[in-house]
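Lab channel / #folding
Pinned by the channel admin:
"Please post every new chain as: sequence first, then the C-alpha coordinates as a reply. Keep commentary short and put observations after the output so the thread stays searchable."

First post following the new format, from NK:
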Amino acid sequence: MNELLPAIGIAAGFVTVIGLLCAIILVVADKFMAVKEDERVKKVRECLPGANCGACGFTGCDGYAKALIENPGTKTNLCIPGADAVAKQVAAIMGVDAEDVVEQVAYVHCQGDCQHTKKKHDYKGIQTCTAAKLFYGGDGSCTYGCMGYGDCAAVCPKDAICIENGIAHVDPRECIGCGLCAKTCPNHVIALIPDKIKTVVACSNQQKGAVARKNCTSACIGCMKCEKNCPVEAVKVVNFLAQIDYNKCVQCGKCAEVCPAGAIKIADFTGIHNLD
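Reply from TO:
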Protein backbone atom coordinates (compact mmCIF):
# COMPACT_ATOMS: atom_id res chain seq x y z
CA MET A 1 0.00 0.00 0.00
CA ASN A 2 2.83 2.36 0.87
CA GLU A 3 4.30 1.77 -2.58
CA LEU A 4 1.13 3.22 -4.17
CA LEU A 5 1.14 6.49 -2.24
CA PRO A 6 3.74 8.27 -4.44
CA ALA A 7 1.79 7.30 -7.56
CA ILE A 8 -1.48 8.54 -6.05
CA GLY A 9 0.19 11.81 -5.05
CA ILE A 10 1.57 12.34 -8.53
CA ALA A 11 -1.86 11.64 -10.10
CA ALA A 12 -3.59 14.02 -7.70
CA GLY A 13 -1.02 16.72 -8.40
CA PHE A 14 -1.37 16.20 -12.14
CA VAL A 15 -5.18 16.56 -11.97
CA THR A 16 -4.83 19.69 -9.80
CA VAL A 17 -2.44 21.29 -12.29
CA ILE A 18 -4.79 20.51 -15.18
CA GLY A 19 -7.71 22.02 -13.23
CA LEU A 20 -5.75 25.20 -12.54
CA LEU A 21 -4.73 25.53 -16.18
CA CYS A 22 -8.33 25.08 -17.33
CA ALA A 23 -9.51 27.69 -14.84
CA ILE A 24 -6.87 30.15 -16.07
CA ILE A 25 -7.83 29.51 -19.70
CA LEU A 26 -11.53 30.09 -18.93
CA VAL A 27 -10.79 33.35 -17.10
CA VAL A 28 -8.63 34.62 -19.95
CA ALA A 29 -11.21 33.56 -22.54
CA ASP A 30 -14.00 35.27 -20.61
CA LYS A 31 -12.01 38.48 -20.47
CA PHE A 32 -10.78 38.66 -24.04
CA MET A 33 -13.54 36.83 -25.92
CA ALA A 34 -16.62 38.11 -24.10
CA VAL A 35 -19.19 39.90 -26.24
CA LYS A 36 -19.99 43.21 -24.61
CA GLU A 37 -23.71 44.02 -24.48
CA ASP A 38 -24.76 47.46 -25.55
CA GLU A 39 -25.64 49.45 -22.43
CA ARG A 40 -28.76 50.70 -24.18
CA VAL A 41 -30.28 47.22 -24.00
CA LYS A 42 -30.42 47.45 -20.21
CA LYS A 43 -31.77 51.00 -20.34
CA VAL A 44 -34.52 50.06 -22.79
CA ARG A 45 -35.40 46.96 -20.78
CA GLU A 46 -35.84 49.08 -17.66
CA CYS A 47 -38.37 51.23 -19.53
CA LEU A 48 -40.55 48.32 -20.62
CA PRO A 49 -43.40 47.26 -18.29
CA GLY A 50 -42.33 43.62 -17.93
CA ALA A 51 -45.61 42.06 -19.06
CA ASN A 52 -43.70 39.70 -21.39
CA CYS A 53 -46.90 39.36 -23.39
CA GLY A 54 -45.39 39.23 -26.86
CA ALA A 55 -47.78 41.88 -28.18
CA CYS A 56 -44.76 43.63 -29.69
CA GLY A 57 -44.06 40.58 -31.84
CA PHE A 58 -40.91 39.56 -29.97
CA THR A 59 -40.14 37.02 -27.24
CA GLY A 60 -41.06 39.17 -24.29
CA CYS A 61 -39.55 42.43 -23.10
CA ASP A 62 -35.96 41.15 -23.27
CA GLY A 63 -36.41 40.13 -26.89
CA TYR A 64 -37.91 43.50 -27.82
CA ALA A 65 -35.13 45.42 -26.05
CA LYS A 66 -32.44 43.47 -27.91
CA ALA A 67 -34.25 43.85 -31.23
CA LEU A 68 -34.40 47.61 -30.83
CA ILE A 69 -30.63 47.78 -30.38
CA GLU A 70 -29.48 44.98 -32.68
CA ASN A 71 -31.97 45.33 -35.53
CA PRO A 72 -31.97 48.84 -37.00
CA GLY A 73 -35.43 49.86 -38.10
CA THR A 74 -37.31 48.15 -35.27
CA LYS A 75 -40.10 50.54 -34.30
CA THR A 76 -40.09 52.10 -30.87
CA ASN A 77 -43.88 52.14 -30.54
CA LEU A 78 -44.61 48.40 -30.42
CA CYS A 79 -45.13 48.09 -26.67
CA ILE A 80 -48.91 48.32 -26.39
CA PRO A 81 -49.09 47.87 -22.58
CA GLY A 82 -46.55 50.66 -22.13
CA ALA A 83 -48.48 52.97 -24.47
CA ASP A 84 -47.12 56.41 -25.46
CA ALA A 85 -45.26 56.96 -22.19
CA VAL A 86 -42.93 53.99 -22.78
CA ALA A 87 -42.60 54.74 -26.49
CA LYS A 88 -41.31 58.23 -25.66
CA GLN A 89 -38.74 56.87 -23.19
CA VAL A 90 -37.50 54.25 -25.65
CA ALA A 91 -37.30 56.79 -28.47
CA ALA A 92 -35.25 59.10 -26.25
CA ILE A 93 -32.74 56.32 -25.52
CA MET A 94 -32.53 55.43 -29.20
CA GLY A 95 -32.16 59.08 -30.19
CA VAL A 96 -35.12 59.05 -32.60
CA ASP A 97 -38.46 60.80 -32.79
CA ALA A 98 -41.22 59.24 -30.72
CA GLU A 99 -44.00 57.49 -32.63
CA ASP A 100 -47.59 57.25 -31.47
CA VAL A 101 -48.72 53.92 -30.04
CA VAL A 102 -52.03 52.57 -31.29
CA GLU A 103 -53.47 51.59 -27.92
CA GLN A 104 -55.64 48.50 -27.94
CA VAL A 105 -58.17 46.93 -25.65
CA ALA A 106 -59.43 43.38 -25.37
CA TYR A 107 -63.04 42.85 -26.35
CA VAL A 108 -65.21 39.76 -25.83
CA HIS A 109 -67.13 39.08 -29.04
CA CYS A 110 -69.93 37.23 -27.29
CA GLN A 111 -73.19 38.02 -25.49
CA GLY A 112 -74.06 34.41 -24.71
CA ASP A 113 -74.63 34.74 -20.99
CA CYS A 114 -77.02 32.64 -18.90
CA GLN A 115 -80.04 34.59 -20.16
CA HIS A 116 -79.26 34.00 -23.84
CA THR A 117 -77.80 30.48 -23.90
CA LYS A 118 -78.20 27.22 -22.04
CA LYS A 119 -76.13 24.20 -21.08
CA LYS A 120 -76.29 21.19 -23.38
CA HIS A 121 -74.73 18.80 -20.86
CA ASP A 122 -73.51 18.72 -17.27
CA TYR A 123 -69.74 19.06 -17.45
CA LYS A 124 -67.86 17.68 -14.42
CA GLY A 125 -64.29 17.75 -15.72
CA ILE A 126 -61.38 20.14 -15.12
CA GLN A 127 -62.82 23.61 -14.73
CA THR A 128 -61.03 25.34 -17.60
CA CYS A 129 -62.22 26.42 -21.02
CA THR A 130 -59.48 24.43 -22.72
CA ALA A 131 -60.49 21.21 -20.97
CA ALA A 132 -64.22 21.76 -21.44
CA LYS A 133 -63.79 22.34 -25.16
CA LEU A 134 -62.42 18.80 -25.56
CA PHE A 135 -65.87 17.43 -24.69
CA TYR A 136 -68.03 18.06 -27.75
CA GLY A 137 -66.86 21.65 -28.13
CA GLY A 138 -67.86 22.69 -24.62
CA ASP A 139 -70.98 22.46 -22.49
CA GLY A 140 -72.75 25.51 -23.88
CA SER A 141 -75.49 25.40 -26.51
CA CYS A 142 -73.35 27.72 -28.66
CA THR A 143 -70.01 26.08 -29.30
CA TYR A 144 -68.64 29.32 -30.76
CA GLY A 145 -69.20 31.44 -27.66
CA CYS A 146 -67.47 32.13 -24.37
CA MET A 147 -67.41 29.04 -22.16
CA GLY A 148 -67.05 31.01 -18.96
CA TYR A 149 -64.45 28.99 -17.08
CA GLY A 150 -62.03 31.89 -16.84
CA ASP A 151 -58.86 30.85 -18.68
CA CYS A 152 -58.62 34.46 -19.83
CA ALA A 153 -59.02 35.85 -16.32
CA ALA A 154 -56.34 33.50 -15.02
CA VAL A 155 -53.66 34.89 -17.38
CA CYS A 156 -54.63 38.57 -17.17
CA PRO A 157 -51.75 40.39 -15.43
CA LYS A 158 -53.97 43.32 -14.38
CA ASP A 159 -57.07 41.48 -13.14
CA ALA A 160 -59.03 43.27 -15.85
CA ILE A 161 -61.24 40.26 -16.63
CA CYS A 162 -64.01 38.72 -14.58
CA ILE A 163 -66.57 36.00 -15.25
CA GLU A 164 -70.07 37.31 -14.70
CA ASN A 165 -73.35 35.60 -15.54
CA GLY A 166 -71.52 32.86 -17.41
CA ILE A 167 -69.26 34.86 -19.72
CA ALA A 168 -66.07 36.91 -19.57
CA HIS A 169 -66.18 40.68 -19.19
CA VAL A 170 -63.20 42.98 -19.75
CA ASP A 171 -62.82 46.22 -17.81
CA PRO A 172 -61.32 48.52 -20.48
CA ARG A 173 -60.06 50.90 -17.80
CA GLU A 174 -57.76 48.20 -16.44
CA CYS A 175 -56.90 46.41 -19.71
CA ILE A 176 -53.36 47.14 -20.96
CA GLY A 177 -53.85 45.49 -24.34
CA CYS A 178 -51.26 42.75 -23.80
CA GLY A 179 -53.37 40.18 -25.68
CA LEU A 180 -52.65 37.25 -23.35
CA CYS A 181 -56.37 36.62 -22.92
CA ALA A 182 -56.91 36.52 -26.69
CA LYS A 183 -54.10 33.99 -27.08
CA THR A 184 -55.48 31.83 -24.29
CA CYS A 185 -59.15 31.71 -25.33
CA PRO A 186 -59.73 28.36 -27.10
CA ASN A 187 -62.79 29.70 -28.93
CA HIS A 188 -61.05 32.93 -29.98
CA VAL A 189 -63.94 35.10 -28.84
CA ILE A 190 -61.55 37.69 -27.40
CA ALA A 191 -59.67 40.00 -29.73
CA LEU A 192 -57.65 43.17 -29.44
CA ILE A 193 -59.16 46.21 -31.10
CA PRO A 194 -57.89 49.81 -31.28
CA ASP A 195 -59.33 51.82 -28.40
CA LYS A 196 -60.59 54.40 -30.91
CA ILE A 197 -63.08 51.89 -32.30
CA LYS A 198 -66.75 52.47 -31.48
CA THR A 199 -68.57 49.77 -33.47
CA VAL A 200 -68.08 46.14 -32.48
CA VAL A 201 -69.62 42.79 -33.36
CA ALA A 202 -70.67 41.14 -30.10
CA CYS A 203 -70.95 37.63 -31.50
CA SER A 204 -68.72 34.85 -32.85
CA ASN A 205 -71.34 32.34 -34.02
CA GLN A 206 -70.90 31.15 -37.62
CA GLN A 207 -74.06 29.09 -37.95
CA LYS A 208 -77.05 29.87 -40.13
CA GLY A 209 -79.48 32.34 -38.61
CA ALA A 210 -82.13 29.90 -37.40
CA VAL A 211 -79.59 27.56 -35.84
CA ALA A 212 -77.60 30.41 -34.33
CA ARG A 213 -80.68 31.93 -32.71
CA LYS A 214 -81.73 28.54 -31.37
CA ASN A 215 -78.39 28.19 -29.61
CA CYS A 216 -78.12 31.84 -28.52
CA THR A 217 -80.94 34.38 -28.59
CA SER A 218 -78.47 37.25 -29.04
CA ALA A 219 -76.53 35.71 -31.95
CA CYS A 220 -75.88 37.35 -35.29
CA ILE A 221 -78.33 35.87 -37.82
CA GLY A 222 -76.40 36.85 -40.94
CA CYS A 223 -79.32 38.87 -42.34
CA MET A 224 -76.90 41.25 -44.10
CA LYS A 225 -78.81 44.39 -43.11
CA CYS A 226 -75.60 45.78 -41.64
CA GLU A 227 -73.73 45.12 -44.86
CA LYS A 228 -76.43 46.69 -47.04
CA ASN A 229 -76.71 49.82 -44.90
CA CYS A 230 -73.00 50.52 -44.47
CA PRO A 231 -72.21 53.68 -46.52
CA VAL A 232 -68.52 52.78 -46.96
CA GLU A 233 -68.78 49.01 -47.47
CA ALA A 234 -66.88 48.34 -44.27
CA VAL A 235 -69.19 45.55 -43.12
CA LYS A 236 -69.30 42.13 -44.71
CA VAL A 237 -71.17 39.00 -43.66
CA VAL A 238 -68.82 36.03 -43.88
CA ASN A 239 -69.95 32.54 -42.79
CA PHE A 240 -73.21 34.04 -41.50
CA LEU A 241 -71.34 36.42 -39.21
CA ALA A 242 -70.89 40.18 -39.58
CA GLN A 243 -67.30 41.39 -39.82
CA ILE A 244 -66.11 44.99 -39.74
CA ASP A 245 -63.12 46.27 -41.70
CA TYR A 246 -61.81 48.99 -39.39
CA ASN A 247 -59.60 50.36 -42.14
CA LYS A 248 -62.79 51.44 -43.91
CA CYS A 249 -65.18 51.97 -41.00
CA VAL A 250 -66.08 55.62 -40.30
CA GLN A 251 -67.83 54.78 -37.00
CA CYS A 252 -71.19 56.09 -38.16
CA GLY A 253 -73.05 53.39 -36.23
CA LYS A 254 -75.63 52.66 -38.94
CA CYS A 255 -74.85 48.93 -38.84
CA ALA A 256 -75.72 48.83 -35.14
CA GLU A 257 -78.91 50.78 -35.73
CA VAL A 258 -80.30 48.30 -38.25
CA CYS A 259 -79.11 45.06 -36.59
CA PRO A 260 -82.33 43.22 -35.60
CA ALA A 261 -80.49 40.85 -33.26
CA GLY A 262 -78.53 43.51 -31.41
CA ALA A 263 -75.35 41.68 -32.30
CA ILE A 264 -73.55 44.89 -33.31
CA LYS A 265 -72.89 47.33 -30.49
CA ILE A 266 -71.70 50.89 -30.05
CA ALA A 267 -68.84 51.08 -27.56
CA ASP A 268 -66.66 53.93 -26.35
CA PHE A 269 -63.11 53.11 -25.28
CA THR A 270 -61.63 56.60 -25.87
CA GLY A 271 -59.70 58.08 -22.99
CA ILE A 272 -59.16 54.80 -21.14
CA HIS A 273 -55.43 54.71 -21.93
CA ASN A 274 -54.46 58.12 -20.72
CA LEU A 275 -50.94 57.13 -19.66
CA ASP A 276 -49.04 60.18 -20.80
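NK: Residues 5-33 form the longest helix (29 residues).
TO: also worth noting, The chain is about 35% helix and 10% strand.
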